[in-house]
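Students often ask why inverse folding is considered easier than folding. One informal answer: many sequences map to the same fold, so there is more than one right answer. In these notes we will look at a single instance of the problem. The structure comes first.
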């Protein structure tokens, strides 16, 4: 296999592995609060929102050390170990216990920081200036198939049910745990780049010297990665992109946890309210995959750069927020186990709810594919620290959003996303114009997004 073929193979395996892991994890996130609501009359007293807030809070803090960990053990092994912790978190729901639930939330927060830092490193190592847009799209589209498969199962299995039984819960989460483990094993298929050795590098003397300095070199790499993360955090481009990244964290919280809970709480949807959570996840996935395909795989046909895609993303999201505001009861995010009988400005419509799910996914793919692309372009030599900062900002905003989701009515959650999204779009435009100027100065063609 040619070097380019090997790199493309690695990108595909990376995307498929993440697809399996996040088929399990995102499906778990979509139904966690609904399942927990059905458990709260037992000895279990956890909160799905609180758990996700812990996960993203720990994730944000762990991103300070994740580049160092990836530098020491390598991206492949980092992803394998992280995948195991994702599987353990999902397995907790098979027989829930409050202490295990919150302990697993802390552990998966650490694992997620390492996983996403290693993913950014692997994506950048297998891309160059001309392929980063394409590879970001391939990875994103494959990843978002995760929203299709898990939620399709939930939709079919829970159709017509208003209460989730113990048997239903165990069946779903055993299946999701196995799916997550399959994705973890697939990381072993990623092929390492061949090292180029000078003649005589493999003699016994060099092997002994190499072994004696290995630990020291890894520690030096870890320290250098940590210092680079701190330095990059305060660059103009990273500070501006952090506003855009913050918006993706708020949206991630909304479509992966809050919106599904809102749908499941609307009593006017009748016996379909629980199965509609799965159908909503499917429509979000369709939007994500469509966006990843159009704006990633077909990126070479565009000569306008990344800004039009981000503009499309914010417009699509604003339309979705407007329709959700009119369609969903204001107390839906914080409704009790009995749900809500309130009505917003229109009779709740299943069709409008699913349209909004699709628009949320499409807009999210617009932002994330372009953020992955511009980070890979601007920081090709410092990919691990750059992607660690990206996940740090995204996850800390997601943690804050999950926390206030316990208390804020729907209208305030939508308003926060509108304001942060507006300013995040402007800051992204500013960085992209700078990237375009840099390409023009180098005499390169401004055709890759």
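Output (designed amino acids):
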């Amino acid at each position: 296999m040619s070097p380019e073929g090997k790199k493309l193979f690695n990108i595909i395996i990376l995307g498929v592995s993440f697809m399996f892991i996040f088929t399990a994890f995102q499906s778990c996130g979509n139904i966690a609060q609904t399942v927990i609501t059905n458990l709260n009359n037992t000895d279990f007293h956890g909160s799905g929102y609180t758990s996700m807030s812990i996960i993203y809070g720990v994730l944000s803090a762990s991103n300070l050390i994740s580049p160092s960990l990836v530098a020491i053990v390598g991206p492949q092994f980092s992803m394998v170990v992280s995948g195991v912790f994702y599987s353990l978190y999902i397995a907790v729901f098979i027989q829930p216990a409050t202490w295990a639930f919150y302990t697993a939330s802390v552990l998966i927060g650490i694992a997620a920081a390492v996983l996403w830092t290693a993913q950014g490193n692997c994506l950048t190592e297998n891309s160059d200036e001309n392929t980063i847009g394409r590879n970001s799209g391939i990875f994103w589209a494959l990843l978002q198939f995760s929203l299709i498969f898990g939620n399709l199962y939930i939709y079919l299995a829970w159709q017509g049910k208003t209460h989730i039984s113990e048997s239903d819960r165990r069946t779903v989460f055993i299946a999701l745990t196995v799916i997550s483990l399959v994705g973890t094993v697939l990381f072993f298929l990623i092929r390492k780049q061949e090292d180029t050795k000078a003649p005589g590098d493999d003699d016994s003397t060099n092997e002994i010297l190499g072994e004696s300095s290995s630990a020291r070199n890894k520690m030096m790499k870890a320290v250098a990665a940590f210092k680079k993360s701190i330095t990059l955090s305060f660059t103009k481009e990273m500070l501006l992109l952090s506003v855009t990244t913050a918006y993706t964290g708020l949206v991630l919280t909304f479509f992966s946890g809050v919106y599904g809970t809102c749908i499941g709480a609307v009593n006017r949807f009748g016996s379909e309210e629980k199965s509609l959570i799965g159908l909503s996840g499917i429509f979000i996935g369709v939007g994500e995959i469509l966006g990843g395909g159009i704006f990633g795989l077909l990126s070479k046909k565009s000569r306008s750069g990344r800004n039009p895609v981000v503009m499309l993303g914010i417009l699509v999201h604003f339309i979705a927020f407007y329709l959700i505001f009119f369609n969903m009861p204001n107390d839906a995010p914080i409704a009790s186990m009995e749900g809500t009988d309130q009505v917003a400005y229109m009779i709740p419509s299943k069709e409008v709810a699913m349209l909004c799910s699709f628009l949320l996914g499409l807009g999210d793919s617009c932002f994330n594919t372009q953020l992955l692309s511009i980070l890979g372009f601007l920081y090709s030599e410092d990919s691990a620290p750059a992607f660690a900062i990206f996940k740090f900002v995204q996850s800390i905003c997601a943690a804050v959003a999950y926390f206030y989701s316990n208390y804020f009515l729907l209208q305030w959650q939508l308003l926060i996303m509108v304001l942060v999204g507006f300013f995040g779009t402007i800051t992204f435009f500013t960085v992209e114009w700078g990237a375009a100027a840099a390409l023009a100065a180098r005499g390169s063609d401004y055709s890759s997004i």
